[in-house]
Amino acid sequence: MSFLRTVAGGVLATMILAGSASAAWPEKPVTIIVPAAPGGTTDIVARLVGEKMSKILGQTVVVENKAGAAGIIGSQALVRSKPDGYTLGMGNVGPNAINYSLYKTLPYKKEDFKPITLVISVPNVLVVNSETPVKSVSELVAYLAANEDRRTFGSSGKGQSPHLSAEMFLQRIKQTAQHVPYKGAGPAVSGLLGNQYTFMIDNLPSSLPSIQSGKFRALAVTGEQRSEQLPDVPTMKEAGIDNMVVNAWFGLVAPAGTPDDIVGQLQQAAKQALQSDDIIARFKSLGGTPGGNTPAAFATFINDQQHLWADTVHAANLQMQ
């Protein structure tokens, strides 16, 4: 009998310790892996939300950039990390939706990620260097047709929404152009500032400062409505390009196997951060809409996005190794 009491006591103690360990989370800093270079929308929103979440969670939230290969390098690093709630990723439309149909093989699969919550959705914007002699979408179309050596476009990387948005645009205007991919939005912006290519359809937040400073000229936005930050810039539809509504999105994901209770705490912390007045104002200044939905709702959203972009990739007949 004493032996049974000892065993029972040991089991109870283990259960209590396990529960305490879960309840005590987080006991150390949390890292958000950004699968992109500093300066782009993925990086910007990760730092904004991370700073706010650190105050809510009572632990430092560290942003770690792992750029390259259309978000594959950073995403692979995330799925290889321990599923304990201390390593998260700022997922986005590229690695978590487009890549599944764009790449023949990937070092990760959909089931390797556990959605937490949508953080922000933003429209894309068609931009050119202000020195380029075009002031409208129709003028850009004519310029590309007349200047074969200038039929180039840049992006934050192969498979990212700026890349696929530009491919979609070229399909709509029935033209082709050479793709110049960069390792992130920051480098891509620098490339256009240096006139290394002709146009880009970028996530609005990363190009907005260059537009506002007059270094970029915005020709159209890809949202259903005009952006409050660029009220004089037409939508693609208003500019004469039909069926060209595209929104980029960014959201927190964890490695598969992360406990549900920890995912729930992370979602609540992110939601609280996204509902704060300063984050709402900052996201609005970036042209974005805050998220904060439940893990289940975000999972459904990601699944829908995977199907949407698969249709676009297949229509463009794109395939990467």
Automatic annotation (TrEMBL):
The keyword Glycosyltransferase does not apply. Residues 1-23 form the signal peptide. This is Putative Bug-like extracytoplasmic solute binding receptor, TTT family. Keywords: Receptor, Signal. Belongs to the UPF0065 (bug) family. Transmembrane segments: none annotated. Pfam families: TctC. It comes from Advenella mimigardefordensis (strain DSM 17166 / LMG 22922 / DPN7). The keyword Signal applies. It comes from the Bacteria. SUPFAM superfamilies: Periplasmic binding protein-like II (SSF53850). InterPro entries: BUG (IPR005064), Bug_dom1 (IPR042100). PANTHER family: BLR1237 PROTEIN, TRICARBOXYLATE-BINDING PROTEIN.
